[in-house]
Write a structure and sequence with these properties.
14 helices; 2 domains; alpha+beta; 412 residues; two-stranded antiparallel sheet; elongated
């Protein structure tokens, strides 16, 4: 028999034992769904984080006090937390740093601001950030309408603001043009809206569209204290300049912080892709866990399929005898039963892949990520189903091929 004819015979066998076949197919589908779904969710989450953090630029790093929440252990000991970076230190660094690149300073005044316009107001979950003239470019932020803050507005701390897309939806019924030129209240401060950001979505359960960006001095004057930390971002002109920019920044900032030669740095350099790399490294364990869960389920499915195939061989003993009497060889019988096992596995695999893609992307949707078609994991799923089919069908197929045709014809 040819390949297509074997497929037709296999599908006929599936229909003749429909309930048993459906149960086996669903076991295989659940295993593949767990495998594809978890791996897809992990990958889309990583890509989402990568897109959001890459907005800092591939050739950038930030300067922060040591002992922050993203680090803090040094050779088994917790590093002493460095003093906050003051406004004077940050501005001096920006003025003096002469390595080819760009420096940006910003400060988050509050993450719990309530923004009002007329009778409309938001929940107290808006982030108010004071920025300089380089902030938008270094963060990869674009304007949908309006303009950026001018250097004069930033230097004078004028009450001008750039707002995120969510605020336009909440306060101005989703009409950006209507928001331009309007006065909004952020706490006790009033700002004139001059620009609307292009939507950036969410990252790590934090919306990038619920922000109000205003001149740094405005936030400093209202929210700044002696313990306020000012964030510094540095972007080199190219990847080749990154190491040199980092070395130059360390030397300059040590001088600004008045550190002696014998003192360790009380600040650290954090690469913009550091957290993404950390997540990628640690998701290897999650991927292995997902693969193990899927394989355990598939082992159960393989055992069930083998049982069904053995029962099928017994039920079709007389059919096998007739087939052999008509000239079918042992190889023909072997291929026929192997094809049947593989067909059942591939049907389950297709259902599992579809469900897995949907499950993975639904999870990613709630994490704020984008739809991803996991071609690699689809290939893994198809190959896995092929292996499971071969493994499950080999023994029953060998048993069927070795049946004596005369004894098979006598079987009742």
């Amino acid at each position: 028999m040819g390949f297509l004819e074997n497929i037709k015979v296999a599908l006929g066998a599936v229909r003749s034992n429909l309930l048993r076949s459906i149960l086996t197919v669903m076991i295989i589908a659940v295993g593949i769904m767990a495998l594809i779904g978890i791996l897809t969710a992990i990958d889309t989450a990583i890509y989402s984080f990568n897109d959001n953090f890459s907005s800092l630029g591939a050739n950038s790093f930030s300067i922060r006090p040591t002992g922050g929440r993203a680090s803090g252990n040094r050779r088994g000991r917790r590093a002493k937390r460095g003093d906050p970076i003051t406004y004077k230190q940050a501005t001096k660094f920006k003025e003096v740093f002469d390595y080819p690149g760009t420096v940006s300073i910003y400060m988050t005044g509050t993450r719990n601001a309530t923004v009002k316009y007329g009778n409309e107001k938001t929940n107290p979950n808006i982030r108010l950030t004071g920025i300089d003239e380089n902030y938008l470019n270094m963060r990869g932020l674009e304007l949908e309408v309006g303009r950026a803050l001018s250097l004069t507005e930033i230097q004078n701390g004028n009450n001008r603001a750039i707002i995120g897309k969510d605020l336009v939806d909440l306060l101005f019924k989703g009409k950006p043009d209507k928001a331009l030129g309007q006065s909004i209240s952020v706490g006790n401060l009033k700002y004139k809206v001059i620009g609307i950001l292009v939507s950036k979505g969410s990252s790590m359960n934090q919306s990038e569209d619920k922000v109000v960006l205003v001149p740094l001095l405005s936030v400093k004057n209202y929210y700044g204290t002696g313990k306020t930390n000012y964030s510094i971002n540095v972007a080199a002109n190219s990847a080749e300049d990154l190491e040199g920019a980092e070395s130059a920044a360390i030397g300059l900032f040590r001088n600004i912080r008045n550190l002696r030669l014998s003192q360790e740095n009380d600040f650290e350099m954090r690469m913009s892709d550091g957290l993404v790399s950390f997540l990628k490294e640690n998701t290897v364990t999650l991927r292995m866990g997902a693969i193990i869960i899927g394989l355990i389920t598939l082992i159960g499915a393989a055992i069930g399929l083998m049982n069904i195939m053995l029962v099928s061989v017994t039920e079709r003993t007389r059919e096998i005898g007739i087939t052999k009497a008509l000239g079918a060889t042992r190889r023909n019988i072997l291929i026929q039963f192997l094809t049947e096992a593989i067909v059942i596995c591939q049907i389950g695999g297709i259902i599992g892949i579809i469900l897995g893609i949907l499950m993975g992307n639904v999870v990613t949707y709630f994490l704020g990520g984008n739809f991803l078609m996991p071609w690699l994991w689809i290939g893994v799923g198809v190959a896995t189903c092929m292996i499971v089919g071969l493994f499950s069908g080999l023994y029953p197929a060998l048993k069927a091929s070795r049946l004596d045709p005369i004894e098979s014809l006598r079987y009742e």
